[in-house]
Design a protein that fits this description.
This protein is mainly α and 71 residues long. Helix content is 80%, strand content 0%. It has 4 helices and no strands. α1 (4-20) packs across α3 and α2 (24-31) crosses α3 (35-53).
Length: 71
């Protein structure tokens, strides 16, 4: 398992990439690491999120279906 600060850092990178639209290269420059490092860490973060949230997936799918059915 990752240390808490390391995990937090990985999630920050994921958020930057997903929601601010920055490329791996831009994030790598910001953190002064290789783009491959950013890619690896984001992939690891996604793997952890999928594992932790797998029990909630059915509820999310149902909610999404209900939400978009009204439009």
């Amino acid at each position: 398992l990752m240390r808490s600060s390391a995990a937090s850092d990985v999630y920050k990178r994921q958020i930057i990439h997903r929601f601010k639209g920055m490329s791996y290269k831009e994030i790598a420059e910001m953190y002064q690491v290789s783009p491959k490092t950013i890619d690896y860490r984001i992939q690891q973060a996604l793997k952890i999120l999928r594992k932790e949230l797998k029990d909630y997936l059915p509820f999310g799918l149902i909610f999404t279906k209900i939400l978009y059915k009204t439009t």
